[in-house]
Design brief:
This is Aspartokinase. By secondary structure, the protein is α/β, with parallel strands linked by helices. The chain folds into two domains: 218 residues, Acetylglutamate kinase-like (Carbamate kinase, 3-Layer(aba) Sandwich), CATH 3.40.1160; 147 residues, VC0802-like. It is built from 15 helices and 16 strands. Helix 2 packs antiparallel against helix 5, helix 4 runs antiparallel to helix 5 and helix 4 runs antiparallel to helix 6. The mean pLDDT is 93. Bound molecules: adenosine-5'-diphosphate and aspartyl phosphate (PHD). Adenosine-5'-diphosphate (ADP) binds next to loops.
Length: 451
């Protein structure tokens, strides 16, 4: 391992900082471990969604309603503090700033303005939490994450510029020189070259935490959420799902990529680069234990878990010109690339090609509704688009070599399924089912393989 410190970075998600009692749980967690020195927070639950709506441009009435909702969330916390006056003023001035930015967005919005608005959720939660920590008698230092996390100017899903970010290690380490101070900073936000706020994509605070861990060469990164670890599938769908005690970076990243919301897919990258173990636990029940993610695990099982993504569309191009022709696929993919459409799965036959596109993920990317994209694809063959599918992925090890798949596939007995992708990866097998069949298929698949 490359770690040369005992520092731990702890990240708390939106539900963990949703109200005063939850924030107090977070304080107790960080206060009970002197090695936890950098604390990364998301916005209080619900705030980011409200800010996203403001950023899209709303009329005066709706703007007032939304800002009032945000005020209620934040002041429900502030009003429980012992000395709320100063922090109340700071949050009021944030709300005024959000109000003027969202008025501008209602006239004409753009990605930079939207990021500036949406980033306020994390700014407010960290200001309040820093105050709470100080009130509880801890030494807490507020750090603006934008001084450290440097990105390109792709405002809604910015790419981190690693060298420029690592160069800022001293800004964090100098604060850590005070051996008792806890550094409180924001997840999800960064800064581009001109100094404007950027966002790391929805759910990106996990990624921020792992980046901070890499920057300070931390011993571990703890992600505190509302569930005590990574389970064999989403426990909200299968209450019988079992916690995975230890899992490899590779397996965990497959779970995340295929939709296990408990972890942002990019989180693992910095942890892998710097070989920093990641722990996932429940901030409301820290004694319940959790999942450790690390480079290698003993005896990784063939079947690890079931992940899924909703809002999938299938685009099929059929053309006899594909038959025996070379270069057909490259033409299709260069069109997708031109229109910035992100593809998840691909299947082909002699005369047809089908791809899946994640509707939600595609918000910051090219959309399948673009008439110019469709016109160019039409030149290559007939095009059909079908919506309302869910992508289900069975995650495991050596899956391209296993002979035990029939048990898994029995879960599909009563269901039409599409686009089975098996063999390309050793770590997953995925397929699409109609959206309304997703939950029952996940439940059955889980029963067949894990119960
Ligand atoms: N395999 C899984 N294991 C655990 N939780 C999962 C899994 N798949 C999806 N989830 C969901 O992820 C949720 C936690 O993610 P999220 O709501 O983004 O938390 P946070 O706001 O703390 O970042 C859980 O409540 C759970 O429903
Ligand atoms: N607040 C941001 C970033 C984030 O990571 O949130 P959470 O940790 O609550 O998923 C979002 O809602 O996307």
């Amino acid at each position: 391992m490359s770690q040369d410190s005992n520092y731990i970075v702890a990240k708390f998600g939106g539900t963990s900082v949703a109200d005063y009692d939850s924030m107090l749980n977070c304080f107790n967690i960080i206060n009970s471990d002197p090695n936890v020195r950098v604390v990364v927070l998301s916005a209080s639950a619900g705030v980011t969604n409200l800010l996203v709506e403001l950023a899209s441009g709303c009329d005066t009435e709706r703007r007032k309603e939304i800002i009032e909702k945000i005020r209620i969330i934040q002041f429900n916390i502030i009003n429980r503090l012992q000395f709320p006056e100063e922090i109340a003023q700071r949050i009021e001035s944030c709300l005024n700033h959000i109000s003027s930015l969202s008025e501008a967005a209602s006239l004409s919005t753009n990605e930079a303005l939207a990021a500036a608005i949406v980033g306020h959720g994390e700014l407010m939660s960290t200001m309040i939490f820093t105050h709470l920590c100080k009130e509880q008698g801890a030494r807490a230092e507020y750090l603006d994450a934008r001084d450290v996390i440097k990105t390109n100017a792709n405002f809604s899903e910015a790419q981190v510029i690693l060298e420029r970010t690592l160069e800022n290690a001293d800004k964090v380490l100098s604060l850590l020189a005070d051996h008792e101070a806890k550094i409180i900073t924001q997840g999800f936000i960064g800064q581009e070259e001109e100094g404007k706020t950027t966002l790391l994509g929805r759910g990106g605070s996990d990624y921020s935490a792992a980046l901070f861990a890499e920057v300070i060469k931390a011993k571990a990164c703890h992600i505190w959420t509302d569930v005590a670890g990574i389970y064999t599938t989403d426990p909200r769908i299968v209450p019988n799902a079992k916690r995975i005690e230890t899992i490899s970076f590779k397996e965990a990243s497959e779970m995340a990529i295929f939709g296990a919301k408990v972890l942002h897919p990019a989180t693992i990258l910095p942890a892998v680069r710097a070989d920093i173990p990641v722990f996932i636990g429940n901030s409301k029940d820290p004694k319940a234990g959790g999942t450790w993610i690390s480079k290698n695990v003993d005896n990784p099982p063939t079947f690890r878990g079931v992940a899924f993504k909703r809002n999938q569309s299938i685009l099929t191009i059929s053309s006899l010109r594909m038959l025996g022709a070379s270069g057909f696929l490259s033409k299709v993919f260069s069109i997708f690339s031109k229109y910035n459409v992100v593809i998840d799965c691909v299947t082909t036959s002699e005369v047809a090609l089908a791809v899946t596109v994640d509707h939600k993920q595609n918000q910051g990317h090219g959309s399948l509704n673009n008439p110019e994209l469709l016109a160019e694809l039409h030149e290559l063959g007939s095009v059909k688009i079908e919506h309302d599918y869910s992508l289900i992925a069975l995650i495991g090890n050596k899956l391209s070599q296993t002979s035990g798949l029939s048990k898994a596939l029995q879960a599909l007995d009563n269901c039409t399924f599409r686009m089975v992708c098996q063999g390309a990866s050793d770590y997953n097998i995925c397929f699409l089912v109609p959206a309304e069949k997703a939950d029952s298929t996940i439940i059955q698949l889980h029963k067949n393989l894990f119960e």
